Amino acid sequence: MSFSKSPLSDQLGFGALVTDLDPAMISDTETRQELIDLWIDRGVIVFRGLPDDPDTQIELSRVFGNPAVHPFKSVTAQGNIQELADITYNPDRGDIVRIGDGPPLGAWMPWHFDLVYVERINHGGILRAKTLPADGGQTGFIDGLEAYTRLPEELRQEIDDLYVVYRFNGDIAGLRHGNEPGIVLDRMNVGSTEIMGQIDKFPAVSHPLVFTQAETGRKVLNFSPWFSLGIEGMDRQNSDRILSQVADVMIDKSNAYFHQWEEGDMVLWDNWRIVHCACGVPANQSRHMQRTTIEGDYGFGRQTEWSEQLESA
Ligand SMILES: [Fe+2]
């Protein structure tokens, strides 16, 4: 073993912390296989102690697949590093939400899979903190494999063959299922506003609500509250009934891991099973993260004609 590994939490069945990984060993074939196996087994890996730079982040990403270019040009990292997407919050132009009586928050994002609004969902990503806020800024992770095991048997049977329709939506407070109670979007960020103005370029797609992890045969509950429009081929009432129950199980925070960032951390997750969220920062503080988009195709995404029925209902 060319690195040390330990569970992220004794309570959760997913997540691993990797330390003592010599950057020179990232090119070693055996080390690469060990890291891939750990990723598939545990879903989330926190790397601590690696050199804090984009080159290491991209090289590490290559262990798990090809770093792809994000479909939104507006997020390509400064310096035009194609393999990196900037995930930034700027107090002057970012999203601002309020949750109930809480203070205004920037850099807040609901539970989601990355790129679930396109047919080919990327297999993963590595997130690195470039500028950390003084307070807050945690990233939450929940395992769809574990969530599947928590479903009541009756619901499990009902959803087995269903597909969910997804479309990009910049309204992070307007989720149909899995919304934080009392959330209000005070300002939509500039990038999302621009994309919403040309949303026809991003037609709706659908993804199965349950699929089987190819490497292990385990079933994954595959629901992203953000971007979801509803169940393909189903009327609004039934779709809402099912997805509200699914959301309750999928994003149950008592089964989440919340990562408190330390400078230099890199966090990898399996985007085909792990939903994630950003807990937000005080609205007057900046946050700058950079993410790789690790290519892949699980083969189940497809175009759909069903979005109009759901969007108008
Ligand atoms: Fe994300």
* Euclidean distance between termini CA atoms: 55 Å
| Radius of gyration, taken over Cα atoms and rounded to an integer in Å | 19 Å
Largest sheet: 9 strands, mixed
User: What is the class in the CATH system?
Assistant: Alpha Beta
Shape: globular
Could you say which structural class the secondary elements and strand pairing correspond to? alpha+beta
Portion in helices: 10-25%
The helix/strand series, from N terminus to C terminus, equals EEHEHEEEEEEEHHEEHEEEEHEEEEEH
Structure description:
- It is a single chain.
- The strands form four sheets. Strands 1, 2, 3, 4, 5, 6, 9, 18 and 20 form a nine-stranded mixed sheet that branches. A six-stranded antiparallel sheet has the order 12-7-8-19-10-17.
- It is α+β, with helices and mostly antiparallel strands and 313 residues long.
- Strand 5 and strand 6 (81-89) form a beta hairpin.
- The radius of gyration is 19 Å and the shape is globular.
- It has helices spanning 29-42, 54-64, 144-150, 153-159, 190-196, 236-250, 307-312, and strands spanning 4-7, 16-19, 44-47, 67-68, 76-77, 81-89, 96-99, 105-112, 124-131, 139-143, 163-166, 183-187, 205-208, 210-212, 219-221, 228-231, 257-259, 266-270, 274-282, 287-294, 302-303.
- The mean pLDDT is 94.
- The structure holds fe (ii) ion (FE2).
- Fe (ii) ion binds next to loops.
